[in-house]
User: Fold this.
Amino acid sequence: MERIKFNLPYVVVFIPAYNEENSIGDVIKKIKEIYVGGEWQDYIAETIVIDDGSKDKTVEVARRAGVKKIVSHPYNRGLGAATRTGLQTAYEMGADVAVKIDADMQNSPEEIENLVRPILNDKADCVFGSRFLSGFKYEKPFYRKWGNNFFAWLVSTITGMKITDTATGFMAFHRRYLEIFTIIKDYNESQQLMLDSWGKHMRILEVPVKFNPRKTGSSFIKFGLKYPLNVLPAIFRMYIHFKPLRFFFSVGFFFVVLGILSGALILAGSSYMILGSAGSATLIIVGFQIIIFGFLADQISYKRK
Assistant:
C-alpha cells in the first residue's frame, strides 16, 4: 500500500473495541471535535476503529459517529491482537504517529495532544500515558493495585527505567517503531510494547494522564490467575529474546554457586548435606552449560539484529 503523504504530520488514532456500543460513539465524537479539522493544529488527525469481534452494535455506532475506516476481526482475539492490527493499519495508512486510546472513555481524548507532542518534537519514539504520574490512586479492587505494582517493578527491573503504569491503555508511537514493532501474544499489549520498544532501543517516555471511572462495560482484567499466567510468559519470553546472555548467565551462575556450596558442605563434613558429590558436580556442570548456551544465544540474537 502506497503511503499517504501530507505537508503536515499524519496522526492516526486507533480505538480497539469489543462490545463498547455504549461509549465508543462519545470517544469518536470527542476526538473529531478536538482534533479533526482544527486550524490551530500542526498535524492532520484521523480516527479508525479496530472491532475485535464485537457482538453488539459497536460497528454501527462507530459508523454513525463518523469513522470512515473500521477493521473487524471475525471473532474476539484479544486486546493484544486488536492493538497489533491497529498499529499495522496505521503504518499501512502512512501514519507518522499512531495513537491508541481505549473505547470506554477512561482515557480523556483531549490528552492525545500530550502523547503526540513529544514525538512530533523528536523527544521520544514511544510515549505511554501514566495514570499514577497524575496522582491517581487505587481505591478498589485490591488485586489491580498489587498487580500493577508488581508488574511495574518487574518491567522497571528488566529495562532499568522507572515505569509506573504497565496497564495503561493510552499510548503513542513514531513511525520508525511502527515499522519494526512486535506483539507476540494476543492477550495483553502494554507490557509487551514497553519491553519491545526498550529492546529495540526506542526512546521511551511516560507522561501523566487523567483517568476517568468506567461507566459502561467491564475490564478484561479479572481476579484470578488468567492475567498473570498470560502476561508473565510473554514478559520473560521477550526478556530472553532481547537479553539472552543476561538471563542464562544469571540462571547458570545460580546453579554453579549452588553446586559449589553443596560441595563445600560435603568437604566440611556438614550434617546439612542435601546432595551428594555427584549431585554437586552435576549442578556445576549444568550451570556452566547454561552459561555457554547464553553466549551462543547472545551471538544468534546479535546476528539477527
User: Anything to note?
Assistant: The longest strand covers residues 10-17.
